[in-house]
Design brief:
Shape: globular
Radius of gyration: 22 Å
Strand content: 15-25%
Number of strands: 23
Oligomer: single chain
Distance between the termini: 56 Å
Structural class: alpha+beta
């Protein structure tokens, strides 16, 4: 039997066909653009998502026995706002997770609900990236669009609607909308009443392995996936990555460097940081939770540098058949730990953990005429890792940081980034045979939904395989500690200047 995992990312969609043991049989990806009409804004066209997903599914089923596809799982970027009218047409471009236009709306939500009560209900303070503040922004600034709105969906749930015709979501992804009662794993009628959002606009909630719909006849005819194939509720990208990394019980955690960066720890009992520096959400294991620190621009920072300053590396990579990041890794190796006094702040899309500041911005600090492009590349990579170390510090305070961390996402392909992680975190870093944690996690959830696996734990035990362990070393510890101390001092020094900017 086959299982499909669809990962609707920020840069593009990646669709995978797995066998029952979690091995990749076939994969296909497609990119789509991100629009930034103003600084701090981030939007995408859901039609681009639809075309990309359907196209990759057609490629997956080409020259295989599609009758063996047992189920489909969905995952992807969280927090986005997709609005449909009465005819299911998209009303406006989706406002996605890294958009930070809603600072005022966050203040208004906090004032309306009360800071403590908001934490009691949603386990998180009002944040610019969450969906609730985006809804409030549209209500205030685009009343004509709000008047047309009949359905509100998250990005991956729009894809579910395309595939199944169902308006549905799962509790892990919906946790990031800031409209749920997290403890009771349901929509908060109290919060919806206060914010004047009709519950009829919201999708039906399911636990992640539950069946949320089936492939429609129309989609079956286009993609060759059998009509009626079950589609699991799925999970937000990080909750799915946890399953794909084998993080499904207490004592397990993972770090990922995708567009954003995350340190994620599983907990059977709900735990909340009262300062709101990390997120507490429902996880993809029914009845359980996770605590998660987030760096807004992790891989995005390196991609930004690549696209703007590494044209030569891109050209050479094309000629030799290598990924530009491979050449950037080699260049960064030429720079020593600490980058000769150069520190990068990866706040290109503001920041969540631990600053919760929609106004902060990225910076190179300590730049001199002696520095090279290699120093700058390495400083970007180190800055991302220092930001994730900030996340680890908060999790450690809460008593949920384990003794080792699984690493996944695009960053796990970089030998240098893995060594940095082990040395900067001071913990062993384990990488996995399948680097596509979110897609594998979605496929495992589909397998539970379809009865291929007895439980999430059963699916993980069959599909998740450790490839290597990178232990921390003492060689570069002092240089990293010195640079990290400077890194931590920079945000407080710049905080008031960010607001001036």
């Amino acid at each position: 039997m086959y299982l499909i995992g669809i990962d609707l990312g920020t840069s593009g969609v990646k669709s995978f066909l797995f066998d029952e043991d979690g091995n990749v049989v076939k994969d296909c990806s497609a990119e789509y653009p991100l629009s930034q009409p103003f600084p701090g804004w981030a939007e995408q066209d859901p039609e681009d998502w639809r075309r990309a997903v359907v196209g990759t599914l057609c490629s997956l089923t080409d020259n295989i026995d599609a009758s063996k596809i047992a189920g489909i799982g969905l995952t992807g970027q969280m927090h986005g706002l997709v609005m449909l009218d009465k005819d299911n047409n998209v009303i406006r471009p989706a406002i996605i997770w890294c958009d930070n236009r809603t600072a005022e709306e966050c203040q208004e939500i906090t004032a309306l609900v009360g800071a403590k009560r908001l934490m009691d209900i949603t386990a998180n303070p009002a944040l610019a990236g969450f969906t609730a503040s985006k809804i409030m922004w549209v209500k205030k600034h685009e009343p004509q669009n709000w008047a047309k709105c009949c359905h509100i969906l998250l990005p991956k749930d729009y894809i579910r609607f395309v595939l199944t015709g169902e308006y549905a979501s799962d509790v892990s992804d919906a946790s990031g909308m800031q409209l749920m009662d997290i403890k009771n794993r349901c929509w908060s009628e109290e919060l919806l009443d206060i914010l004047d959002i009709n519950s009829s606009l919201l999708p039906t909630l399911y636990e992640s392995p539950d069946r949320s719909g089936s492939i429609t006849r129309e989609i079956s005819e286009i993609t060759n996936i059998p009509h009626g194939t079950p589609v699991a509720a799925g999970a937000g990208d990080n909750a799915a990555a946890a399953i794909g990394s084998g993080v499904y019980q207490n004592g397990k955690a993972f770090a990922t460097i995708g567009t954003s960066g995350v340190v994620f720890a599983h907990t059977d009992e709900m735990r909340v940081d009262e300062s709101g520096r990390v997120h507490t959400f429902c996880c993809a294991v029914p009845g359980a939770y996770h605590v998660m620190g987030v760096t807004q621009a992790a891989g995005l920072s390196l991609r930004w540098f690549r696209d703007n300053f590494c044209r030569d590396e891109i050209s050479v990579a094309e000629n030799i058949g290598k990924d530009p990041y491979y050449l950037m890794d080699m260049a960064a190796e030429q720079s020593p730990p600490g980058c000769r006094g150069l520190v990068f702040l990866p706040y290109l899309m503001a920041e969540r953990t631990p600053h919760l500041d929609p106004y902060c911005r990225g910076a190179f600090f300590g730049l001199s005429a002696a520095h090279t492009k290699a120093d700058m590349i390495r400083s970007v990579m180190e800055g991302v890792m220092y930001s994730l170390k900030d996340c680890c510090g908060v999790l450690d305070e809460m008593g949920v940081l384990p003794e080792e961390i699984y690493m996944c996402g695009g960053g796990a392909r970089s030998p240098l980034w893995k060594r940095m992680a082990a040395d900067i975190f001071g913990l062993p870093i384990k990488t996995l045979s399948c680097q596509e944690g979110p897609a594998l996690g979605a496929a495992i959830l589909a397998g539970v939904c379809a009865g291929v696996y007895k439980s999430v734990a059963d699916g993980c035990s069959r599909c998740v395989k450790v490839k290597e362990t990178v232990p921390p070393t003492k060689n570069d510890k002092k240089q990293y500690e010195k640079a990290y101390d400077i890194y931590r001092a920079l945000y407080p020094a710049l905080k008031s200047i960010y607001r001036m900017l």
